[in-house]
Amino acid sequence: MTHDTKSCCQTPPRNQGRSAVKTPATKPVQAVDAVEIPGGRAFVGTNTPELPMDGEGPLRRQRVNPFRIGRTAVTNAQFAEFVDQTGYRTEAERWGWSFVFFAQVPDELGATEGVQGADWWRRIDGATWRDVNGPGTHDAAWKPDHPVVHVSWHDARAYAAWVGGRLPTEAEWEHAARGGLEDVRFPWGDREPDDRQFLPCNIFQGRFPDTNTGADGHVATAPARSFGSNGYGLYNMCGNVWEWTADTFRIRSLRKQAKARMAAMDGYRLSKGGSFLCHKSYCYRYRIAARSGNSPDSTTTHQGFRVVWPVGQGDHGG
């Protein structure tokens, strides 16, 4: 079994500097379908890390206040409302390109530029949250009830602020993902997904990156509200799309290798939950304690987010 510290999860930074993103000044709208999560001492991390160099351990307790969180990741339809009302342009739109998983790149686009060491990621000019797999793919690939992708950390923060919320902390995210359970590996407990019969989330089945059988019914994103919900009624807390958090990616380690990795990832932001590209044989990051770091301007076909609010907000339709 090979677990790569880069793997399918981490995409390269744009290496073209940082662009300023302003939060649109507009009247916030109420969130739809948010769930109240009780406060308390949250379990964070694990004492049995699969990827120690990601900073998964140790298991610790951290107090969190009650909060509300979206029942699903933000959908294309929700993000479209934001764009329609504010005229917001995502970083992928302003840069003019984004990363698309090679299997989703249309043949008619011809030869594409891969990423050294992670050739499954292809730089596609014109790939955005509207044209998920590149120019002309809106009708085939864009679905209103699927999670929005090709959104950077800056884009996610802008949307969250517009709806009067923010991104979750890692502790809040894990507390919500556990759904009332304690030291468990997945939102449903500890049973491991397989490639055939037990398919509780949208991850990769087969041999990454070349063969995805789609046994769970999806080879890319699934509807944001799909598969079973956890004990708090939240959907797809593991698998489907990575979710940006408010936190900086940090590793609690004094090892020289960890320090060197952190230096190379200075300013990177933390994502949680894994995606449709995760698989135990290669990228075992669809566990609650798993983590990934990406530059805040990074955008891909498997990166999304969900929003949290203080208790008393975000409760329309919950």
TrEMBL record:
A Pfam family hit: FGE-sulfatase
Residues of the Sulfatase-modifying factor enzyme-like domain: 32-309
Matching SUPFAM superfamilies: C-type lectin-like (SSF56436)
Segments passing through the bilayer: none
Comp. bias (Polar residues): 7-18
Superkingdom assignment: Bacteria
Location of the region described as Disordered in the Swiss-Prot/TrEMBL record: 1-27, 41-60
Protein's recorded name: Formylglycine-generating enzyme family protein
The organism of origin for this protein: Lutimaribacter marinistellae
